[in-house]
Amino acid sequence: MVPSNKVIAIDGPAASGKSSVATRVSKKTGFLHVNSGLMYRALTWSALRADIDTNNESKIIDHLNSIEMECIKSNDSLLLHIDGNDPGEELKSQEVNRSVSVVAAIKEVRSELVKRQREYLLISDIVMEGRDIGSVVFPETPFKFYIDASPEVRALRRRGEGGVDDLRERDKLDSSRKVSPLVIPEDAFVIDTSEMDLNEVVEKVLSELNNKGLIT
Ligand code: C5P
């Protein structure tokens, strides 16, 4: 890690609003926004396209090693291209939603993607969102947030986005897997956003970053 580069870690369950918060915090701080979930989604999307059974761990690992996952910087965030293709909105399809947590539970997949996630810090200060950013990817960062909301509110938000997503099933798999499950990091600043709007959440995050001396 380049000692002078900093990371803001934003974790939380599905549809908790992490991406919206991370996007706004990235704009405010100028830090590069990295959505680690997109990497697990891109691998899942590519495996499904190649007709690979997502429950077949060794085939998924071989597939990860055979594809080129390229990150393209677009404004302040990153797009992922797989073997030169842009999956676009397909990363958020029902099929990917249904299989991504199974793929993300594979130990070898996590160790490889965590390694790539850590490499981002070599190029920039970053805001990274995910499930294990504060607990596993960057446990050393002092800037950790856990964004939560009640299951009802999260389901409502996802429906509002038009997505079909079994949040309960994904949460269950993400929280119960053996390798780096979704947890609240001990030293994270927890925000229950169930009764807050986006502006209020972002203000809270920025005020905490200000208290910690990261921004003025
Ligand atoms: O954040 P998003 O809901 O797009 O993530 C999709 C899936 O990727 C999660 O349900 C989880 O299985 C996996 N994921 C993960 N670790 C991360 C980010 C995402 O396991 N850091």
Task: Tell me what portion of residues adopts beta-strand conformation.
Answer: 15-25%
**Poorly predicted spans:** none
Give a short account of the largest sheet.
5 strands, parallel
Bound molecules: cytidine-5'-monophosphate
Q: So how many helices?
A: 9
Secondary-structure-derived class: alpha/beta
Spatially, the strands of the biggest sheet line up as: 2-5-1-6-7
> What is the N-to-C order of secondary-structure elements (H for helix, E for strand)?
EHEHHEEHHEHEHHEH
* Outline type: globular
Percent helix range: 40-55%
- What would the average pLDDT be, to the nearest integer? 95
C-alpha Rg (nearest Å): 17 Å
Give the end-to-end Cα distance, rounded to a whole number of Å.
Answer: 24 Å
Number of strands: 7
Description:
The structure is a single chain. The chain is of the alpha/beta class. 45% of the residues lie in helices and 17% in strands. Strands 2-5-1-6-7 form a 5-stranded parallel sheet. A hairpin with a 2-residue loop joins strand 3 and strand 4. Helix 1 packs across helix 9 and helix 2 packs across helix 4. The chain is globular. The mean pLDDT is 95. Cytidine-5'-monophosphate binds next to helix 2, helix 4 and helix 8.
